[in-house]
User: What shape does this take?
Amino acid sequence: MPASPERYIEVQNSEEFARLRQTLRTFIFPTTIAFILWYALYVLLSAYARDFMAIKLAGNINVALLLGLLQFVSTFLIAWYYSRFAARRVDPLADDIYHQVEGGRSTADSTGEGGVR
Assistant: This one.
């Protein structure tokens, strides 16, 4: 049976939940700001530094193409790094909070995977 609304409010006001939110913020805010600045740099260079972006590096590959492809690379790197960060720092905190809300039941019990022996 799900926990009561009061229990969720209690958990939301708990120190553990505040720690979880702070842990997420320490990753999400700086990473988001860095990526937005990186993307804005690419857009600004494309708009105002056309000569620089047109510099050929090898064959038909120029600075603009390289920086554009690096946008994709940085997106995948951020997603990969967040996955590792979440597994190490966020998921354990979230699991603890989940078990508190569910009254100490294990994840297997609540998903129906823990059968009767």
Q: What stands out?
A: The chain has one domain: 5-110. The beta strands are 56-58, 61-62. The two ends are 22 Å apart (CA to CA). Residues 56 and 102 are 60 Å apart (CA to CA).
